[in-house]
Amino acid sequence: MEGDKIIQISPRQARNLFLKNQLLINPKLPEGKTGTLKAIENLGYVQIDTINVIERSHHIVFFTRCPDYKQQYLHELQVKDKKIFEYWAHAASFIPMKDYRFYIPAMKKKPKKDSWLDKWIKEHRSLIRKVKARVKKDGPLAASDFQDVKHRKRGPWWDWKPAKMALEALFWQGDLMIKERRKFQRIYDITERVLPENVDITKPSEEQEKKFFIRKALNAMGIATIQDINKYIGISGRLNKWVDQMLKLGQILELTIKGLNKSYYILTKGLEEIRKSKTVISLRVSFLSPFDNSIILRDRTSALFNFDYSLEAYVPKTKRKYGYFCLPILWQNQLIGKIDPKADRKNKILIINNLHLEDKKINYNKFIPALSRTLKDFADFHNCEKIELSKNIPAKISHKIKI
Fold first, then answer.
1. What's the pTM value of the predicted model, to 2 decimals?
2. Domain-embedded: residue 281
3. Which ranges of 124-239 does DSSP label H, i.e. alpha helix?
């Protein structure tokens, strides 16, 4: 606040700050593996997902931000350099190793009393001890290295076998870490053998922990509601109390966005960025993964971009409107449509099943050439030699795309 007056910014200013902080406008990242690490550090985390109708979500996140990104960078950062680790952030994620200590409180937190997880752990203490002892003795192991139990009753957790559940319990509690992934399969090892020697493992105070997550969220989003801050790295828990404290101390500011009836928060330095920054609009078209940090909070996406989006992979085929794995399309500082790609890896064809553009006063003379370039780059990223446009795409658009 300035005096007793709450600052107000325009939706355009809010979007530009957000997209800049999300590295989607003029990111200026270093080349190579260093740029990939810098992207993870700036975003706070990058969510891992299994769906691979195209490249998995985390790879798409880097494709949109790092022009020279290669998948081997993630493996090297995790296994060789030990600059990133896996844990729960918004969901299962790659996280900067330098942030490790702030996740220790979550690892040490006991499951809610009498929850099914609490009961499972209490009922399987012996199994958990045996699984940990075997990993300690035999070295890094995958769930597939453990036998299943015959004729067992099926339960939650995707019907995981008991040993897999024990591995995950040990992982959540910080006793095991993910050393690496082999063909996307998690390889577990004793935490002490995975952590680099120089990592800080000092458990933070509650205040240090909570304020760390607030700063991480605001650094990544620029401006955010209290709901956004609480959800960006969900493992942080409710941060309302600490947001209020930081507001009183002048470490963050409250503001509003014209036309939106909500309170937003911003780091003090962020307001200076808004005042000093010149409007820079990216002329590149970006395809955003459904799990991209910039759109993972759907209510926020709707408010800032007037854009409704949901992943239809889990919707029956007959009820899908845009496609199995449709990706929001970012152009300049707006979300202007959705594209549903599929990589036919055997025949090296990138198939575009659907392309839906919303009526947002798109300058097609500039947009279509930019879309054509991104389609070619996207095809190259998937090692596809040809792009095939579905007949579902309106001819007035498909005929203009140069592929």
1. 0.93
2. no
3. 125-138, 156-159, 162-172, 191-194, 206-221, 226-232
